[in-house]
Amino acid sequence: MSRPPVPPEPDPLDAAAAAFRAMPVPERPADAVVLARLTRESLSGVLLFGGSPPVALADVVKAAERHKLVKYKMTMTTETIPPAGITADPPVTTFEMVLYADLRAPRFRHVVPEEVRGNGLFRSSGYTVTDLTRDRMLTVFATELTDKAAAPDLSERDKAVLKSVGPGGKGARLTAIPPRQAAQPKQTLLDQLRQLQDHKEAKREPDGKLVKYTVPGKTTTEFHTADGVTTRELDTTTVLWVDPATRLPVRMTTEVVDPDSPRRPNPADPKFTTLTRTDSTDFEWDPKLPTGVKSVDDLFGLTPPAGYKLDDQTKKPGEEAAPAKP
Q1: 3-state SS assignment for residue 188
Q2: Could you give the CA distance from residue 236 to residue 254 in angstroms, rounded to a whole number?
Q3: Domain residue limits, the chain
Q4: Is 292 left (phi over 0), alpha (psi -120 to 50) or beta?
Q5: Residue 190 CB: number of other CB atoms within 10 A?
Q6: What pLDDT is attached to residue 10?
Q7: Orientation of helix 57-64 relative to helix 189-198, angle to 10°
Q8: Starting from the edge strand earliest in sequence, which strands make up the sheet with 248-258, in order?
Q9: For residue range 55-98, what is the model confidence (pLDDT) as tens digits?
Q10: Which regions of the chain are under pLDDT 70?
Q11: How many C-alpha atoms does 216 have within 13 Å on its Cβ side?
Q12: How far is the C-alpha of 117 from the C-alpha of 122, rounded, in Å?
């Protein structure tokens, strides 16, 4: 999340300290007065945050730093809002995945749930490992044809889909991260929390038994059009919910608003507004590794499991692909 630079402002802490030094020293209050004051302030914290002291974003960062790995569910929703009189098709698209994130290095593993695709002709499942420390991405996939694929009366369209998919099976593809993406800041989830911590406009408020932070911001996005690549800053809003008992995130949403969607082929077309929302839930800190995975490095490894044919697109012509993991 990037922000334009702002001119330095007078430090309010220095001004407050100077004013404090200029004040006359009052007489020491009685112990009973001090006790009453501390009790009142502690009680206000209990009433506001449901029995726990206020949680600062710095506390959230410290709590997360004690862990090495986090697993959570991510739901990405894109809503297209067209001008009056125009219908968007589809108006809303949703995509779900389970994500493992390395908290010490920018490495991620996206697990895509099994789904029936291709007009019900085949099932697909798999995962993608993105290792930004090496600028590499491994996609592992399995395809299985359904009973419908064996039907004798398939349409020509379905036959074309089956031909493009092939007979099914297991495969993997290793690719390089595109240079433009590789040049972007490489961040872990901890880095994102630290950015929220440093944001001056973070707003804290109670939300039931949780503590809720709302942080406005900007994000720089590249769009590829017929005229080339354009870069624009879009408004973002990040909302973070924290459990005051553990001081760890339990949910985080980020919404990006694009009032001039790149769906328009040319500037003369009507403007669309696109809202892209990422909702991260079901956080598990230092979770159990998936079956067959022996370590965190294995979880984010760039070698496919045994039985998966690897298409190594990072090799030059004539070079051999790396062997599959035994």
Answers
A1: coil
A2: 7
A3: 55-104+188-286, 107-184+288-326
A4: left
A5: 18
A6: 42
A7: 160
A8: 203-207, 210-225, 228-243, 248-258, 273-285, 69-81, 92-102, 107-117, 122-131, 136-145, 169-176, 309-312
A9: 899 999 999 999 999 999 999 998 888 777 777 666 788 889 99
A10: 1-53, 88-90, 164-168, 222-228, 262-269, 316-326
A11: 6
A12: 6
3-state secondary structure of 152: coil
What residue type is assigned to position 170 of the chain? K
Q: Let me know how long the chain is.
A: 326
Rounded-to-integer distance, Cα 126 and Cα 168, Å: 13
Q: What's the predicted TM-score (pTM) here?
A: 0.72
Sequence-separated (6 or more) residues with CB below 8 Å from residue 199: 3, 215, 217
The structure tokens listed for 98 are 């389970």
Alpha-carbon separation of residue 18 from 75, 170, 296 (angstroms): 50, 69, 51
β partners of residue 74: 97, 280
Strand partners, 213: 204, 240
Locate all alpha helices (DSSP H) within the chain, ordered by sequence. Answer: 12-22, 31-48, 57-64, 156-165, 179-182, 189-198, 296-299
Beta-bridge mates of residue 215: 238
Whole-angstrom Cα distance, residue 107 to residue 130? 6
For 18-43, b/e burial (b = at least 16 CB within 10 A) is: eeeeeeeeeeeeeeeeeeeeeeeeee
- Quick one: 138 exposed, middle or buried, by C-beta within 10 A (0-12, 13-18, 19+)? buried
Concatenate the DSSP letters of all residues of 38-101 into one string.
Answer: HHHHHHHHHHHTTTS----HHHHHHHHTT-SEEEEEEEEEEEEEPPTT---SSSEEEEEEEEEE
Domain 55-104+188-286 sits in CATH at 2.50.20
Query: Which residues are 281's β-sheet partners?
Result: 73
CA 178, CA 188: separation in Å to the nearest integer?
19
**Rounded-to-5 percentages of helix, strand, coil across the chain:** 20, 40, 40
Which residue, among 226, 227, 197, has the nearest Cα to 213 in the 3D structure?
Answer: 197
